Amino acid sequence: MPYVLSALDKSPLAGQDSPTDALKRTIAMAQLAERLGYHRFWVAEHHNVSDLASSSPEILISHLLAHTSRIRIGSGGVMLQHYSAYKVAENFNLLASLAPGRVDLGVGKAPGGLPLSTRALQADRDPSRKPDFVQQIAELGAYLDGKGPVEGLAATPLPTVAPQRFLLGASVESAEFAAAHGWEFVFARHLNGDDALLDAVATTYRSIAGKAPIVAVSAIVSEYAGEAIAEAENTKLFKVHVPGAQSVTVGSAEQAEEYARQIGASEYRIEPKQSSVIAGTPDQVWSEFDRLADRYGIAEFIVEPAVNGSWRLATLELLARRRSAVAA
């Protein structure tokens, strides 16, 4: 079945890169994605991570909109727990007014960092008055619809074309929640490659929303299958479970242990996750996209290159070149 490709970037530093180098690469990736016909280009939010330069997606989105002309630009995503729903709505209504019809607002429930950064981001908030995620989503949606929960209060400016809204997650519950609130759902397969879970999520979301979720994937593409597969073997994920706290997925056992240390937990469990990276030649990677699209009815994949440096741009180009060859 036909499907479109989009791209996700976290602005990783490679080698001796400075943050400026990483962000210049992100701009180049967005411009390349636009030339190659990708549907949308998203940037992420990560805090207190020295090798990632994308900590404020709203600022980066504004810059990317100014350096592209057609492709949709958005967040993948804003970590809503840290912020006022009203302010997030203002930010994205302003972006949507700057670039009508081109702005996506993706939000996630995760913290986007370890407990030290979470405490810093929420230091001035009274925990007893902090709204839960359900309430935040409801408020955010209302403000975006121009119908805020407080009479006489609007998240101005009110754009002629509202930002398209997406909820990011990796659970059946998140899919149900997105469908019930009228949000598009993006399944984070790049963090969880369990096809049984994807099957349950797709079935649930389709039964309520009448369509399939979007699927985010990690990919490593090379003209040489062995090179891509060898690189994928270096990609590992770990999920850390702490009683009474939110479980998080991180990129190393050391990060998992650091999460437990920062939260002050003496009891925790670290669960190694099966690699969800799709690796191989362009034909092999597209074949896996085809399999997932046929099995679950997926109409869009958001591709995160699971490599650093110029290989990130090459990943987008190799996938697009293969698509063009098949179309020809």
From TrEMBL:
GO molecular function, one term: oxidoreductase activity
Enzyme class: oxidoreductase
Residue ranges of domain Luciferase-like in the record: 16-293
UniProt KW keywords: Oxidoreductase
InterPro entries, sorted: Bact_Lucif_Oxidored, CmoO-like, Luciferase-like_dom, Luciferase-like_sf
Keyword Oxidoreductase among record annotations: yes
EC number: 1.-.-.-
Similarity annotation: To bacterial alkanal monooxygenase alpha and beta chains.
PANTHER family (alphabetical): LUCIFERASE-LIKE MONOOXYGENASE, N-ACETYL-S-ALKYLCYSTEINE MONOOXYGENASE
Classification via NCBIfam families: oxido_grp_1 (TIGR03558)
Name listed for the protein in its UniProt record: MsnO8 family LLM class oxidoreductase
Native organism: Mesorhizobium retamae
